[in-house]
Design brief:
It is built from eight helices and ten strands. By secondary structure, the chain is α/β, with parallel strands linked by helices. It has two domains: 129 residues, 3-Layer(aba) Sandwich (Rossmann fold); 85 residues, Dihydrodipicolinate Reductase, domain 2 (2-Layer Sandwich), CATH 3.30.360. A six-stranded parallel sheet has the order 2-1-3-4-5-10, with helices on both faces. Helix 1 crosses helix 7 and helix 5 packs parallel to helix 6. It starts with a strand and ends with a helix.
């Protein structure tokens, strides 16, 4: 059994993650960290092997650093923070340090969308990205959009402009519009509910200890 703690456990993503872990036959939920629950991170990870973090950009980095000190692998679904201090901390910790996976999106369809967009940008180098999220999302552009743009540029496309929409009624949506002479190609992914992210979260929990590099950015290393 993989012993798992969840940070941000009272949030919508945190609650979904707790439910998913509890429903997994090979996992045990051993801690729920959240100020609203009155549980500090150190207490929640005391018996954990892996932490799943769905908190805020301000909290994610300190939580990851605390996991390094405690010998706990970290799966971070929070974006919008500078990962450089985390890279330096991992280097300083040396061999045997726990692994950190930072994933801007856990939906399998979203990962396929990013991969298809990168492939398409080799042949249609001009594109723009429109990302749409719920009104409470703190970072703009989203981590998924920024990662998509990075992958497209690495594949040989022009760095695409990103347009962010924040409205009630949305969950997580993104479309990549590629344009060429006399034609356009649109690749779109929609997460209708937060349960769409949970298979990817469980995949990350199962695979984070096997990563050859830490921190690793993106779930692609475990999926493809």
């Amino acid at each position: 059994m993989i012993r798992v703690a969840v940070a941000g456990a009272s949030g919508r993503m945190g609650e979904a993650a707790c439910t998913a872990v509890e429903g997994a036959q090979d996992m045990q939920l051993v801690g729920r960290a959240d100020p609203l629950l009155g549980v500090e991170l150190e207490e929640a990870i005391a018996d954990a092997e892996v932490l799943v973090d769905f908190t805020t950009p301000d909290a994610a980095l300190p939580n990851a650093l605390a996991c390094l000190r405690a010998g706990v692998h970290a799966v971070i679904g929070t974006t919008g923070f500078d990962p450089e201090p985390l890279r330096q901390a991992v280097l300083a910790a040396g061999p045997g340090a726990p692994n950190v996976l930072i994933a801007p999106n856990f939906a399998i369809g979203a990962l396929l969308m990013m991969r298809f967009a990168a492939e398409a940008s080799r042949y249609m180098p001009r594109a723009e990205i429109v990302e749409l999220h719920h009104e409470d999302k703190l970072d703009a552009p989203s981590g998924t959009a920024a990662r998509t743009a990075q992958l497209m540029a690495q594949a040989g496309g022009e760095p695409p402009a990103i347009h962010s929409v924040r409205l009630p009624g949305l969950v997580a949506h993104q479309e990549v519009i590629l344009g060429a002479l006399g034609q356009t190609l649109t690749i779109r992914h929609d997460s209708i509910n937060r349960e769409s992210f949970m298979p990817g979260v469980l995949l990350a929990v199962r695979g984070v200890s096997t990563l050859a590099q830490s921190p690793t950015f993106g779930l692609e290393s475990l999926l493809f």
